[in-house]
Amino acid sequence: MSDTLTTVLLFKEALYGALVIALGCSVVGVYVVLRRIVFVGAALAQLSSAGIALGMFLYGLGIGGELTHHPVAMALIFSMAGAVFFGIGGGGRAKVPPDAVIGVTYAVAAAAGILLIAKARTGEAHDIFLQGNILGITHIDTLVLLSVTAPVLLVHAMFYKEFLFVSFDRETARTLGYNVRFWNLLLYITLGAVIAYAMQFGGVMLVFNFLVLPAVTGLMLARSMGGIFAIAITSALTAAALGFALSVPFDLPSGPTIIAVSGAIALLAWAGRRMTHA
Amino acid sequence: MTALVRFDHATLGYGRRVVLSDLSFEIPEGDFLGLVGPNGAGKTTLLRAILGTLPPLSGTVSVQPGLRFGYVPQRDSVDYGFPLKVLDVVLMGRYDRIGLGRRPSRSDRDRALQALAHVGIVHLADQQLSALSGGQKQRALIARALVGEPSMLVLDEPTNGMDLVSTTQILSLVRDLHERDKLTVLMVSHALNEVANYVNRIALTMEGAFRIGSVDEVMEETTLTSMYGIPVEVDEVHGHRIVVARRQRTDATPSHGTPGV
Question: For residue A190, which of A167, A171, A206, A172 has the smallest C-alpha distance?
Answer without folding.
Answer: A167
